[in-house]
Design brief:
single chain; 80 residues; mainly alpha; 3 helices; 2 strands; DUF6500; Msl2237 protein
Length: 80
């Protein structure tokens, strides 16, 4: 997942959690406007969500945020 998408996922998860609490669910569509202005990025998010992780349509924002942050930590550890 490219850096811009990771940052967007974390920001959206933080926003949803702040507004609706830690039990809030979302789909990968939550990271995009209703108008599909970046189909490549949308497909990257869908690939990560559906094929790579086999997630349900709706997942808890806290789970998604943790998955992205854990991937960042794993990547950083592998670089050292």
């Amino acid at each position: 997942m490219r850096d811009a998408l990771r940052k967007k996922v974390i920001a959206v998860c933080d926003e949803k959690i702040a507004k609706k609490g830690p039990g809030v669910g979302l789909s990968f569509y939550a990271f995009f406007a209703n108008k599909n202005d970046n189909p490549e990025l949308l497909m990257e998010a869908a690939e990560w969500w559906i094929r790579e992780h086999e997630l349900d349509h709706f997942e808890k924002a806290t789970k998604i945020k943790e998955m992205v942050q854990q991937a960042d930590r794993n990547r950083a550890a592998a670089d050292h």
